Amino acid sequence: MNDYFGDDGSTVIFTLVETKETENGVKYKIIVANIGDSRSVLGRNGTSISLSEDHKPNNSLEQSRIVEAGGYVSMNRVRGNLALSRAFGDRSYKVPVEFPPEKQQVIVVPDYSVTEVTSEDFLFIACDGIFEGDIFTRESVVEWITNKLKETDDLAMVMADLLEVCLLRGSRDNMSAMLVQFKDGRDYDRGDEYIPGPYYEGQKLGKFQDAYKQFAEKGGFTVEESRKKYEELEVKKKGQTNGSSSETSTPQ
Fold first, then answer.
1. How many structural domains is the chain composed of?
2. Which end of the chain is more exposed for a tag (fewer CB within 10 A), N or C?
């Protein structure tokens, strides 16, 4: 088991949604547990509400624990290397081994938040590849999603477009994201559909190209067929956008 995991580590953002029937309709309560720097953000009336805080080594409380455990923070990293102060794995930072787990340099103790939401809100959950550098902030990603939801109710397409924007803005980290709406979704069932993204050439993109091929094959496509389908979707999307613009600008 130890040989398999080695010194790799991971963050986690974990969310539970409770529903309750009331005289005024359904009420929702979300419980968020966070370890690391993945984020949970609530979108409400175009504004963002942070439901998690990043566990970074330069945070005063985190840094105090790290130093008391015999470590140090340099360049905002634990011992000048790890950019997180809480994570699964990363066993070489779970020291001193004689310390209680919650007092070691890097710990796996989550923070929690509890929030009541309405059917007008949405929840966005994502890893740091969405937020690194100047890709998105909590505020700008909620604004972006809010505008997209005015165009379509297809949450899969909203997330696909979001990931493509992140790539175009220069994200080089892994990207995982989920969008949750608080409403009855039984009429949303559309069956499985493979929606390809753009394919990128380059000798240094072997892992991406291998993953692209695997996902294409799971969807019943070759890479070439997948790329063609993506181009067709882009043409269709541009046509719909131009159509909307024409209708809007037509004199009444």
1. 2
2. C
**Secondary structure of residue 187 in the 3-state scheme:** helix
- We report the CATH number of the domain holding residue 146 as 3.60.40.10
User: Any idea how long the chain is?
Assistant: 252
pLDDT of residue 162: 93
Secondary element (H or E) of residue 84: none
The model's pLDDT over 51-65, given as tens digits with 9 standing for 90+, comes to 999 999 999 999 999
For the chain, give percent helix, strand, coil, nearest 5: 35, 25, 40
Region label for 76, one of left (φ > 0), alpha (ψ between -120 and 50) or beta (otherwise): left
> Taking a C-beta distance cutoff of 8 angstroms, is the pair 85, 106 a contact?
yes
Ranges of residues in the chain with a pLDDT under 70 are 1-6, 240-252
Q: Which two tokens stand for residue 64?
A: 């105090």
Shared domain for 130 and 216, answered yes or no, is: no
On whether the CB atoms of residues 35 and 87 are closer than 8 A, the answer is: yes
CA distance 155 to 149: 8
Q: What are phi and psi of 30, to 5 degrees?
A: -115, 135
For residue 243, the model assigns a pLDDT of: 58
Nearest by Cα to 73 from 8, 109, 83, 9: 83
